[in-house]
Specification:
Structural class: mainly alpha
Largest sheet: none
Number of strands: 0
Radius of gyration: 23 Å
Strand content: under 5%
Order of helices and strands: HHHHHHHHHHHHHHHHHHHHHHHH
Length: 445
């Protein structure tokens, strides 16, 4: 009932983005899970509004499952109700379900994964391990970043060893077989839709962008007659002002903001003509040429890549990096002093960054969750190494904390730090925070 009310209040009108068309039109760079979901509803006579309604409704059984799982884990009506309310009532995650993007289904599947995780950690019921594996399989078919959840399954075996030590192989089979079956099914569906051509990867685009952002040692590694030589020179010369601008940023928020903006620009707009010419001269695809140059630049400066990853990791945990409440004035002043910024029109910089007032509350809250999760990880690993017994509630906290930081690290390694990636972790943030409060309350008593 709550979800229907929420849906009515937000209007249930579809919101599309540039990426939306790639799902609606079955782009071959996308996993086919979400496009098939959309077209399955279309085949029943629905439209994009039907997709939005379905996205809202799918969260209902997921949240009910989580509510009962938390009730079993904590034996607390208040705790179960609090988790459900906070999962449902976040205004930012509510927006997911009106968007024609993968975040909505990924969010609901994350809730199911978390609910099953609670059940397994509480009583070792392997039926829920199957549900957990099934939710992960569907999440991967929808959004590749769900691979970040995969290492959690073997980690759960270690964390929940007292419950699972008599049947470790059975647990792994129950949890992983749905994932394997899902990967096979997604690949078959992709081939059915797109034929036998190799799946197009976005990795070369990301590698080229990251390589463009890191400084080289000044030496071109390619022979002068290699077409990659000229593309390297273009990156070295034309993107140098961008690298200098980012490196000279007055604050960390300014640096991460500029870095993320220019990384997206390098992915899709920078040197497109030069890339195509170099690829044509070499007789290879543009993707191969981008990968070739990008990898070489990263190999020349691995520490530059590490710094870029650190910036992205910071950005993932900083939802309002573009309007940081304590740094927006410095960012504006820095931009104004250096106008026009390199490639400013193509990179889409706003003339003025305006603060978001809610960031004064949200940023400290999110950073507190990140710090608390890190503390839980340190304490939990020490406890595991010492063989200390842990409560089922703490085991859930530890697993959720490892998942959150592992997920954010994978995003930082392979993509950029944007808010909607981190917001997908909202159920795990809620669970970890409330369980920690409950744990501290019990200790105090």
């Amino acid at each position: 009932m709550m979800q229907l009310v929420i849906g009515s209040l937000v209007g249930l009108e579809p919101v599309t983005f540039p990426d939306s068309s790639s799902y609606i039109h079955f782009s071959d760079v996308r996993n086919v899970g979400y496009p098939y979901f959309i077209h399955g509803l279309f085949s029943l006579g629905g439209d994009l509004r039907t997709v939005v309604i379905a996205q809202h409704l799918l969260l209902v059984p997921a949240t009910i499952y989580l509510t009962f799982s938390v009730l079993k884990l904590t034996d607390s009506n208040w705790m179960a109700a609090s988790v459900a309310l906070l999962v449902l009532l976040n205004p930012f995650t509510i927006q997911f379900h009106n968007q024609i993007l993968t975040e909505s289904l990924f969010f609901s599947l994350s809730v199911i994964f978390l609910a099953a995780l609670c059940q397994v950690s509480h009583n070792g019921d392997l039926r829920h391990a199957v549900v957990m594996g099934g939710a992960l399989a569907l999440a991967i078919a929808i959004k590749p970043i769900a691979y970040a959840f995969l290492p959690i399954i073997p980690m759960m075996l270690w964390i929940n060893w007292p419950l699972l030590k008599s049947r470790p192989v059975k647990f792994l089979l129950y949890a992983l077989m749905p994932v394997v079956a899902g990967l096979i099914a997604e690949n078959l569906a992709h081939h059915y839709r797109h034929g036998q051509e190799a799946r197009i990867s976005l990795a070369p685009i990301h590698l080229f962008a990251k390589g463009s952002l890191v400084a080289s040692n000044g030496e071109n590694p390619f022979e002068a007659d290699d077409p990659a030589y000229q593309l390297w020179q273009v990156v070295e010369r034309d993107f140098a002002p961008v690298r200098d601008l980012i490196r000279s940023s007055p604050t960390l928020p300014a640096e991460s903001y500029l870095s993320a903006k220019y990384e997206v620009f390098a992915q899709y707009q920078f040197a497109r003509q030069e890339i195509a010419q170099a690829a044509d001269s070499a007789g290879i695809s543009s993707s191969e040429m981008m990968k070739k140059v990008g990898v070489e630049r990263l190999l020349q400066n691995p520490l530059g890549y590490v710094r870029l990853v650190a910036l992205n990791f910071y950005s993932v945990w900083t939802f309002y990096v573009a309007s940081h409440p304590w740094s927006y004035a410095e960012i504006n002043h820095y931009q104004e002093a250096l106008m026009p910024l390199p490639f400013a029109e193509g990179a889409g910089f706003p003339e003025v960054i305006r603060p978001v007032k809610t960031a004064y509350i949200i940023l400290p809250a999110i950073w507190s969750v990140a710090a608390a999760a890190l503390g839980v990880i340190v304490f939990g690993i020490i406890s595991l190494l010492r063989g200390k017994e842990m409560t089922s509630r703490f085991r859930v906290m530890l697993t959720a904390s490892l998942l959150m930081h592992g997920y954010c690290l994978l995003v930082a390694l392979t993509g950029i730090g944007i808010a909607r990636y981190a917001l997908s972790l909202w159920p795990f943030m809620v669970m970890t925070s409330l369980l920690l409060v409950l744990q501290l309350h019990h200790k105090k008593r």
